[in-house]
Design goal:
Layout: E1 10-12, E2 27-28, E3 34-35, E4 37-41, H1 70-84, E5 88-92, H2 102-112, E6 118-122, H3 131-137, E7 141-145, H4 151-158, H5 163-175, E8 182-187, H6 195-204, E9 208-213, H7 231-239, E10 244-248, E11 257-261, E12 267-271, E13 284-287, E14 292-294, E15 301-304, H8 305-310, H9 315-327, H10 347-350
Parallel strand pairs: 1-15, 4-5, 4-13, 5-6, 6-7, 7-8, 8-9, 9-12
Antiparallel strand pairs: 2-3, 10-11, 11-12, 13-14, 14-15
Helix pairs in contact: 1-2, 1-9, 2-3
Bound molecules: S-adenosylmethionine (SAM) and iron/sulfur cluster (SF4).
Amino acid sequence: MAAVDMGIPTVRSGRPSLDGRPDTPLLVDRFGRVARDLRVSITEKCSLRCTYCMPEEGLPPIPQRDLLTVEEIVRVVRLAVEELGVHEVRFTGGEPLMRRELEQIIAGCHAAVPDTPLAITSNGIGLEHRAAALAAAGLGRVNISLDTVDKVGFATLTRRDRLDSVLAGIRAAAAAGLKPVKVNAVLMRQTLSGATDLLRWCLDNDCQLRFIEEMPLDADQEWARANMVTAAELLEVLRARFTLDPVGRADPAAPDERWLVDGGPATVGIIASVTRKFCGDCDRTRLTADGMLRSCLFSDEEFDLRHALRSGADDAELAAIWRGAMWNKWAGHGIDTAGFVPPERTMGAIGG
Ligand code: SAM
Ligand code: SF4
């Protein structure tokens, strides 16, 4: 197993170049894309150790002083919505439920931008006890990551025997009105044969399931293009038990293609993040838990918003840094090319 090294991405302080940028408040880039979907990571801590994401010992802790505070998060979310055209905000991690202040973060953001949908991507552990409070605070939707409904398979993949807690979390989310609950499953060879059971479980429990091709963002650096399970392979497995009719994408920026299951109305989605690159439609902008702006999961270039925030920058200065970070976004990753180098930060350290 390769040593875990979060590395030091290229961090730039100050204002990134805005040369050639059109005069618009929006987060545009040189390739005609507009970022409207903000992902905010709020912690590097996690209650699971999924092998495609975290090292067994967890990620190196972010010093408390470097973590954006509730107030700082609320300020940047307001700025993103009011000044930069962000339409949707999703909190992630690490595991967002590991941050005790999650309810405060949601309530603060909801008060600041009441018309903007707020969501979390979560492994669901502990959600059982917090779903109602989160919904009351203004949370609108949850995406739960669940790769298998086989107890042993779950414990092996996540290195924790917590399947029951995840399933309880999903049920609690639905009971709290956070519907439809979306379930995300990463395609792994060891759980592929259980994909049909997972789809059956999601159909029976009113969850919208999406599979995601595994990306080279695992801390253990064991991802290999030759071994990864592709969307095509999954379709073959699912078609042994269900009829699937293609229905395309929910909207052009949505990364998942969808299939009607057994004549519908339920669908299953697949995000072919590796075999069908969707960078051309990407509308994401990301903020790490330690306050770094990232324009892409796979780029090591980061812009230091935390430093600006804490040096007294006004909203106009913060907005200029953010616009510049996105203006300098590259065309896309090259996972399928020979020269591909994974980013220094792993998925858990960026926020998926
Ligand atoms: N802990 C939360 C969770 O698991 O939902 C939020 C953080 S997690 C990093 C966000 C999403 O990234 C999850 O849906 C997870 O399955 C996905 N993910 C993690 N590592 C991945 C990888 N190597 N390839 C594709 N998706 C990955
Ligand atoms: Fe934790 Fe989510 Fe990564 Fe799994 S995918 S280890 S739950 S951060």
